[in-house]
Amino acid sequence: MTKTRGATTLFQKVWDATRICELEANRALIHVDRHLLHDLSSPQAFSGLRSAGRIVRNARLCVAVPDHVVETAPDRGDDTVPGGREMITALRANARSSGIPLFDLGDSRQGIVHVTAADQGVVLPGMTVVCGDSHTCTLGALGAWAFGIGTSEIEHVLATQTLVMRKPLSSRITIKGLRAPGVSSKDLALGMIARIGTGAAAGGVLEYAGPAVEALSMEERFTLCNMGIEASARAAIIAPDQTTFEYLARRPHRPRDFDAALTAWEGLKTDVGSNFHQEFFLDCGDLAPQISWGTNPSQTIAVDATIPEIDMAAPPQKRESAARALAYMDLRPGQHLLGLPIQYVFIGSCTNSRLSDLISAAQVVRGRRVAAHVRALVVPGSTLIKQEAERLGLDQIFRTAGFEWRESGCSMCVGMNSDRVPAGTRCVSTSNRNFEGRQGKGARTHLASPSSAAAAAIAGCIVDVRDLASS
């Protein structure tokens, strides 16, 4: 694309607004508008803060939520796994002593940090948002620059409400076409990564654009941005539009002067003729429901396809990765995944635990039973989502079918509480990552959409949800 003089990308506009000053070595000092904290990554940062004799700079710009190590079984407490109680109580004590708002266990606002932050409207278009978790990129669906940071950076933000950064590169993927029936935003995300690869966005900011993106609901956009990190983007972003504004208008923490906010947000879009480091293009019209076969999200195929042969012309590292993935997953090139027996199903995670995800899964499940050999879990992304799902009767649909209806938390996505997949067994999961041991040591994870996961639970094997829906 030819650069138009004066044309500016969406990310450049956010960068210009958040940059405080330029520093040496091509670095800049940026202001952080919202800092999200959870149980896993923040205790060490607070310890470092205390050791240095510093205090939290601006507690009102922070929010704390226990989510990674929390138990999801009914009647839960602080006990989870060895060390879990200590992490939860440390987060609670640090938040309370610092005056940071806490969405604690038992609070309807508690949930997976990336989910409840959106639920509550504490992240807004144009904000710079950080959290000690790589999937913070989820919140870029709201038009925010949202990205994960490490422990030392968490401590720096707590103390100064700033970060020192080099400006990241900005890429864009333009998606056109009309999704076929049965193809979800998760399928779109997996199909995209399978085509452009896990290293495509080079640690930068990936903007999603095009008519297929504009047609997505807000919750579908969260799913798409959540998976941006799996294409190596540190942040993913979508320009806010009427869909975004209608979503935010219903949030508890929306701006008091909403009309004034809208006026500012309407300018948050990429100008025609703006220049990007890289441009990608995708037509989603030919996508089918997707299922992963390997140990990274790019190792994904259409559910009715066969596992590809190892590309001997590919770089050695890619060939070795494919061979290792096949061995770990106990699969072979040319094999169909349809009919492959599975033992676990997980519907949840910051990728697919929102109300619309639960509704799509329940539509598949209604009137059916989970296969006798399958353990299936549904874990809502927040307590608020859980309550709304129960108001709609979704919990009864899942329970009647034989699913476990759990409390909100990260759960089996990351396997840091008691929700884990045993070694050598297969799980169809709606989460975002499938590397070795992600859901438990030796666990074999197949990534899929909520409806595909629900269909697998019923069939007891990997199945094309379109076939189940028509039966």
Largest sheet, order of strands side by side? 16-15-14-17-18
The top level CATH class name of the largest domain: Alpha Beta
Give a short account of the largest sheet.
5 strands, parallel
Number of helices: 16
Taken together, the total number of domains comes to: 2
What class would the helix/strand composition place it in?
Answer: alpha/beta
Radius of gyration: 21 Å
Q: How much of the sequence is in beta strands? A: 15-25%
Q: Overall 3D geometry? A: globular
| Helix share, percent | 25-40%
Distance between the termini: 47 Å
Look at the structure and give the mean pLDDT.
96
Topology:
Blueprint: H1 10-18, E1 19-23, E2 27-31, E3 34-38, H2 42-51, E4 62-65, H3 84-98, H4 113-120, E5 128-131, E6 145-148, H5 151-160, E7 162-166, E8 170-176, H6 185-196, E9 205-209, H7 211-214, H8 218-226, E10 235-238, H9 242-248, H10 258-265, E11 278-283, E12 290-292, E13 300-302, H11 316-329, E14 344-347, H12 355-365, E15 375-378, H13 383-391, H14 394-401, E16 404-405, E17 426-429, E18 444-447, H15 450-459, H16 465-470
Parallel strand pairs: 3-4, 3-5, 5-6, 8-9, 8-11, 9-10, 14-15, 14-17, 15-16, 17-18
Antiparallel strand pairs: 1-2, 2-7, 12-13
Helix pairs in contact: 2-5, 6-8, 12-14, 12-15
